[in-house]
Design a protein that fits this description.
The complex is a heterodimer of chains A (235) and B (450). Chain A is an alpha+beta fold and 235 residues long. In chain A, 14% of the residues lie in helices and 28% in strands. The two termini of chain B are 45 Å apart. Classes of the chains: A alpha+beta (235), B alpha+beta (450).
Chain lengths: 235, 450
């Protein structure tokens, strides 16, 4: 019996919390309290848990989702949409990145879909989801039908390119620049992809998970508290 | 080229030659030096860097204007001077602490930021239907008061920028009354962190309803002054009418919402279209105007304040009946463990609670410690919650990985998107109209740059 794996501990299986089938595993958590490299006295050192986002949904999706998805598939083919997820009453369509602009054009122009209002772009970085590290999330609104849809596109860190949708939605301009600025995602076809919030000569892309928050020690009455990103915290 | 006397004598307004042309640093009242300096090349375009430190650009907004005489031929907007990394910081704090960050984003609508964020966390937790009624009514009350305060600043600073200083002084007078109410209810004038995931931080203090009714009376008396001062004022109208024109197609292309969209005559309001916090149960109108210009946006903001007052009155009536009702979700794994009280050093845990956890119940102490230091865990997934802020659609995109901190938090701030439309609104107009166009968009750089 090794010291780190007493036989009365069941928590060393590769998946601590077995993710639901089809879930998107984005990370693996180890231990507790962020302890690394020191003798673990918490007893949680052997804990392994999968971090999984909700996977694809099965039909029927409910409300207007089925007919809208069917209609979109009939327009763009069934190979453009990777998966459909209905979670917390929100519809998410995972789109192959090469097909994004075509999908957006149909979503905007088709009378039955008519997502004419481009709300925004948001990036998400999952450094441990190999091959799909960078996610780009688009929110669209159809004022005509009073509906919302979220598009999600992923790109590997080694090839951080996503087609720009500025040609379809002019308002995507600044939002894509912001996502480039913070995540280093290159939007191919953007008219002027430059930094927008950070200075032009800034090195790195600050909202990536491997980019440190930075900060200085806080000293109070002789006690020193490290900055938030190096503080020990729950994980 | 010889330098004129005024540039030689002023160390802060010198000229220098660069490979891109001659650069003048203009500090005010020295326009003559620029004109004199250009006299031998009268055809030359002038590129003016307006801002970021300029009082009439609404905060640290930078405009790069290409001028032909006084006509703007090309306008570019530069932002980012107020970027504080709010979204990145939130990834290192608990879900509850996130409120203290979002409230600082667009500092003129803190309650809207807090509500959008809290609604997002609640949707991720799946407790949207469990929020107590009183908490929702208090959120609506605070948001509508906030809408009044924000519109007052929009009108006041917009007036100041065109030289109508009385509009500014009376605008800030009424805003002060609103901030007094905020201070009474939350303890702070801005950066409240009062609306939190699960409800609101604290019940209404004693006497608050009377103060709210006094405030409504005051506003009913004084809001018509704005209409009397501005609505038919020939100078005011001359400066605003036809300026910052953008039609419905333009609004859709640039994703403009809020008063700018409604100034095209389209009554789109998320409080009506996709209600939240029980807005469908309130009686109010959505004002529109059909001139698509800065004057229409001014009139819409003016009318919206009256509508907000109507909602505030309804909230006060409901709160009178909800005396003593809970303001935080019943789930003890989410709700902040203690009742808060105002002590000599500000708001904090009530003395009764301290006595309980320190002297009476070990379990309560553990519970308090766990919830305050670790926070609650939020099931993995993502949510996007839009609300109708004073400026338009404010959305909060939250991603959780099942942990105690937001994995990613993003504010879709209306000001950020709206500034994209500025070149379309002011290219071809006079430089003085640029200021009016900005004021009619009402951007707040704290929200733009986050």
């Amino acid at each position: 019996m090794s010291e780190h794996q007493p036989e009365n501990l069941p928590a060393t299986s590769p998946a601590g919390d077995a993710a639901t089938p089809g879930a998107e595993v984005v990370d693996q958590r180890q231990g507790m309290f962020g302890v690394r490299g020191t003798g673990d006295t918490s007893g949680f050192g052997g804990l392994r848990r999968q971090v999984a986002l909700p996977g694809g949904s099965a039909r029927p999706y409910g409300t207007w989702y089925d007919s809208a998805v069917d209609h979109l598939v009939s327009l763009v083919g069934d190979d453009a949409i990777e998966k459909v997820l209905v979670d917390r009453d929100e519809l998410t369509l995972h789109i192959h990145r090469g097909r994004l602009v075509g999908v957006c054009r149909h979503l905007r122009d088709d009378e039955a879909l008519r997502f004419e209002f481009f709300v925004g772009v948001s990036g998400v970085h999952f450094p441990n989801e190999t091959g799909r590290e960078l996610h780009v999330v688009y929110h669209l609104l159809s004022i005509t039908h009073n509906r919302r849809v979220r598009l999600e596109v992923s790109a590997p860190d080694a090839d951080p390119h996503v087609p720009s949708v500025v040609s379809v939605y002019p308002s995507a301009d600044w939002h894509e620049r912001e996502t480039w600025d913070f995540f280093g995602i290159v939007f191919d076809g953007h008219p002027a992809l430059t930094r927008i919030l950070m200075p032009d000569d800034w090195p790195g892309h600050p909202q990536r998970k491997d980019y440190p928050l930075g900060g200085i020690d806080v000293e109070y009455k002789g006690a020193v508290i490290p900055p938030p990103d190096t503080r020990r915290s729950y994980n | 080229m010889t330098q004129t006397r005024s540039t030689q004598s002023d160390p802060y307004a010198t000229t220098r030659d660069t490979i891109e042309g001659k650069i003048f640093t203009v500090t005010g009242q020295d326009w003559d030096s620029v004109v004199a300096g250009l006299s031998d090349e009268p055809e030359e375009r002038i590129v003016v860097n307006m801002g970021p430190q300029h009082p009439s650009t609404h905060g640290v907004l930078r405009l790069i204007l290409e001028l032909d005489g006084e006509t703007v031929t090309e306008a570019r907007v530069g932002v980012g001077y107020l970027h504080t990394g709010i979204e990145k910081n939130m990834e290192f704090r608990s879900w509850t602490q996130g409120v203290t960050y979002v409230t600082r984003a667009d500092y003129l609508m803190p309650f809207h930021n807090e509500t959008a964020y809290s609604l997002g966390v609640e949707r991720l937790l799946g407790i949207t239907d469990e929020i107590p009624e009183k908490a929702s009514v208090m959120r609506v009350l605070l948001m509508e008061l906030n809408r009044i305060a924000s519109h007052l600043v929009a009108i006041a600073t917009g007036g100041m920028e065109i030289g109508a200083l009385t509009v500014m002084t009376i605008g800030f007078r009424e805003r002060e009354m609103t901030l007094d109410l905020f201070e009474l209810i939350t303890g702070l004038r801005m950066n409240h962190a009062f609306i939190r995931p699960g409800g609101v931080a604290q019940d209404l203090p004693p006497g608050a309803l009377d103060k709210i009714r006094e405030y409504v009376q005051w506003m009913h008396k004084h809001l018509p002054e704005y209409a009397a001062l501005c609505n038919a004022n020939p100078i005011f109208k001359a400066r605003l009418q036809g300026v910052g024109h953008l039609d419905l197609a333009g609004c859709m292309a640039f994703a403009l919402s809020g008063p700018v969209l409604r100034s095209t005559g389209y009554a789109y309001d998320l409080r009506r279209a996709q209600p939240y916090c029980g807005y469908e149960t309130y009686d109010f109108d959505v004002p529109t105007w059909d001139t698509m210009d800065a004057y229409g946006r001014f009139r819409i903001r003016l009318q919206e304040m009256h509508e907000s007052l109507r909602i505030v009155e309804q909230c006060a009536d409901r709160l009178a009946e909800l005396d003593g009702a809970p303001v935080m979700v019943a789930d003890k794994k989410v709700a902040w463990p203690s009742r808060l009280a105002v002590g000599t050093d500000g708001m904090g845990n009530s003395l009764d609670h301290i006595k309980h956890i320190m002297g009476e119940s070990m379990e309560s102490l553990i519970h308090h410690f766990k919830l305050v230091t670790e926070g609650f865990r939020v099931p993995a997934g993502q949510a996007y919650v839009p609300i109708e802020s004073p400026r338009g659609e404010l959305g909060c995109h939250l991603v959780s990985d099942g942990g105690t901190k937001p994995y990613r938090a993003h504010l879709r701030d209306p000001s950020f998107g709206h500034l994209q439309a500025l070149p379309a609104m002011c290219e071809g107009s006079m430089i003085a109209d640029v200021i009016v166009a900005i004021a009619s968009l009402d951007p707040v750089l704290g929200g733009v740059d986050r």
